[in-house]
Amino acid sequence: MVGIVIVSHSALLAAGVQELARQMVQNAVPLASAAGIDDAENPLGTDVMAIQEAIASVYSQDGVLVLMDLGSAVLSAEMAWELLTTEQQANVKLCAAPLVEGTIAAAVQAATGASLEAVIAAAQNALTAKASQLSVEHPSSVSPKPSPIESAEITQEIHLMVQNPLGLHARPAAQFVTTSSRFQSQIGLQNITKGTEKVNGKSINQVVTLGVRQGDEIAISAAGSDAAAALSALQQLVENKFGESDSIQNVGAVGAVGAQGLRPHPDQFTESDSKSRYSDSQPSIPHNLSGIPVSPGIAIAPILFYPVDSLQDGKKNESILSQFSLPVAAQFTDNPEAEWQQLQTALSTAKSEIQQIRQKTAKVTGEAEAAIFDAHLLCLSDPLLLDAIHQHVFDEQKSAVAAWQAVINETIISYQEIEDSYLQARAADIADVGQRVLRLLIGEELPLLQLSNPTILVANDLSPSQLMQLDLTNIMGICTATGGATSHLGILARSRGIPTVMGVGYDLLRLENGTVIGLNGETGQIWIEPDTAQIQQLETLRDKQLATAAALKAKAQQPASTRDGHRINVMANIANVTDAQLAQSNGADGVGLLRSEFLYLKKEEAPTAAQQEEIYRAIAQIISPHPLIIRTLDIGGDKSLPYLDKTQEDNPFLGWRGIRVLLDCPDLFKTQLSAILRASHEHPIKLLLPMVTSVGEIRATKQLIAQVKADLREREIPFNETIEIGIMVEVPAAVALADKLAAEVNFFSIGTNDLSQYVMAADRTNTQVTALADAFEPAVLRMIQQTVKAAHKVGISVAVCGELAGDVLAIPILVGLGVDELSLNPAAIPRIKAGLALWTMADVDAIAPEVLQFDSAEAVKSYVAGRLKIMG
Ligand code: PEP
Ligand code: MG
Predict the structure, then answer these.
(1) Which pLDDT score is estimated for 109?
(2) Distance (Å, rounded) from C-alpha 233 to C-alpha 618?
(3) Which residues have a catalytic role annotated?
(4) Does the CB atom of residue 754 touch ligand 1 within 6 A?
(5) If residue 341 lies in a helix (H) or strand (E), which one and from where to where?
(6) What is the CA radius of gyration of the chain?
(7) What is the end-to-end Cα distance of the chain in Å, rounded?
(8) DSSP H helical segments within 365-420, as ranges?
(9) Model confidence pLDDT, tens digit, residues 17-29
(10) Which of 704, 692, 670 is nearest to 742 (CA)?
(11) Which residue, judged by its Cα, is nearest atom 9 of ligand 1?
């Protein structure tokens, strides 16, 4: 097989080109590079001897092709060639093709076993595909169902050059259509460069499919009373480059809705499809990604985007609507008016759903990404689409479902037929919107996902309730583009022991369903399509981790103490009965935090007192004889209840949350208090109040408790009269008032997840700032110290139940600060019990005050890690 040598001034450049070529041919072609020189100060240059060695390393009778970057690289390559024997010179050719394209084309050709001449020809023609892709050619098929504007109506027309980097992709197209729609005039748009027909400028589908790219000339026409104003507004929009900066942005991901809108992975391209699939606007996906390590463990499996629109694992869902088959009886109607109304209702619900996703995306990831949903919204009011559906319903008497399905499918197919990878990908956006409306029309919930094969779940964002709906059996790992370690999704993943990496960024969403990835939940690393060696490495690491975990679990039923015998209860944070079982089997000394809100999520209405009591009793039974601490409903922040009348808040973590909601909804609160009190009969159950900021909130709660108790007494229902009441210390106000609050309650439980976000002023769900909300920050640790001091002064106990308690590095600090109990995700209990046994009280008493003086969380962690290392 012909070998290929890359000669470059830059070792990095050569490595990149080599990697690209290697991926293309799956290691099938001998590749070598000679690049850079051995001079640390000035590493750019070429070395004749290195080139000679590279040629020798891939040399065979089949020949070697040498590709160079420029200048002295060519001279050096010529000199290296001259040093070859005459026989070798006959088989080694230098090639003037461009380095990147030439190398890739040559490698692809060589992989077919082609002759040296054929490989040279491929390299020399390497620019043809790119040139033809960039050239002016566009068939009329560009526009699905074009409806040309009547030229007689046109009163004015302007010609402009589109200058923003990605042309009229989804976001600018949405802006164009929104602006056009503000005017009464008919707006026409034509891509002059590509020679398309004029289309309706108020139709998102038509505007997008014109395939307008940077540098294309467009003609905008307007006919009507406000034509001049419309043209002026549109001109301004185009000339302002639609508000885009000159840097290319990733427009592939559609955000929180899942798998649609994915862009092809360049490494999966072959030469034959490169023309249709390559896009100059498409930055390539790196082979490795990384994010925030959230839940430890190794996972290697194909990915599946969630939510999925089909129960079939791993299917791409671009043509999902055609898979939905409608019984014939449901395809036609006698009452078109009612069907039309039904469609209008579904469209308006879909709009408000998308608006909510848009709002959330804007908050979590930024306005630029959120604006993609504008295209979805416009699709719902696209006049052409609606006209077509209207025709189906009123002229052909089709049902709303059948009409919607037919028109959306036609639109999807029109997009898919266009020879433009960017526009093909937009078919997925249409499918996404189409699927949403279809689901509303047929009244179906998102399907409960049951996977038959090991899978890594990938999402832009996943809510805690979405995760709770899933059967986790075959979910090997979770990976999200946004979010942070102390988000409730992260907490749930950790408690279920699912390796998880979050906050990976939008490149993640450009992968294809079914792509195999490896992830390390401890380091946050992700390998895309790992090779055999990488898989072997990961599997070895995974086996080692699993063996260590099994050994620790075997010892975890023993009580936990420091090496010198100081007992600390290591308890579990749980969400439901399944977690309780896991906690029990992992050796939990009780449940330190039952997040009761998970009983309320994903329900039509709040659970009754009887339903709650049954669950509390079941959990108490499982964890018996150890105590169960039930935290009353902590809704708000990143958890919401559909049946609670909660208006959208700009800053939900600073909003109507925790005890504030409970005191404003006394019936809801009293129902829960009653359930807890009833379950407290015969079980060691305690009550924990979330998000307390004032003495008044505790007193108001106590009054409600007194009322509930009186009611139970009257009805002769037994309960624990002396049930203990504690509060979460998780806002700075509670720390400042710790002495006063301690006088009101029986115990404190410090919620370091919230305490960190509020002390550090960094939203725990916001990828951009979540690193700041680090509980190892000395500012947070000092708050813990202050809380413990105030509590111990009046003789009440203090637990830490935030994620910090599940971190091995935090043990000596928390114990050294005097914390009495730790409560953490059940999966980490064996590790923490073993970690505690490494220290003596003398160790921790020295470490805790020391780290309070450090400057940063990093310094704290590396200090404790260093101490652990010394101890071996
Ligand atoms: C905390 O804030 O640390 C805590 C344990 O509660 P949650 O994570 O449920 O807000
Ligand atoms: Mg909290």
Answers:
(1) 78
(2) 65
(3) 488, 801
(4) yes
(5) helix 336-364
(6) 32
(7) 52
(8) 367-370, 372-380, 383-394, 400-417
(9) 999 888 777 778 9
(10) 692
(11) 595
